[in-house]
Design goal:
By secondary structure, this protein is an alpha+beta fold. The chain has a single domain, classed as hypothetical protein tt1805 (3-Layer(aba) Sandwich), CATH 3.40.1530. It is built from 2 helices and 5 strands; from the N terminus they run H-E-E-E-E-H-E. It has helices at about 5-15, 70-85; strands at about 20-25, 35-40, 45-50, 60-65, 90-95. It has a 5-stranded mixed beta sheet, sandwiched between helices. The model has no long low-confidence stretch (mean pLDDT about 95).
Length: about 100
Amino acid sequence: MPAHLEVSGLVRRVQQEGGFAAILAKGEPEAGTILVVLAHRGAAQRAFERMPTPSGERRWTLSREEDPGDPAGFAHWLDRRRSQDRDLWIIELDVPEAERFIP
């Protein structure tokens, strides 16, 4: 499925559940990598992205968790990831139990 369709569907699903979803960075429409930032009511942010498994599948994996003592470090990490990969989509989800949207 093209990245832009997956992102659009994810944003709509979260909004239908009463949550907030925002596209922080747009990547390559057809094949860009998608990084999802989960944040809910001031809790530490977590970043998930699909990573290959030994079997060849791609599963959502925790890539980074915000350090409550250094919240700016998480933002700098996102900026660095974006500068390393211009095809990267960054989506923020603020909704209870956000993990259910990235099975």
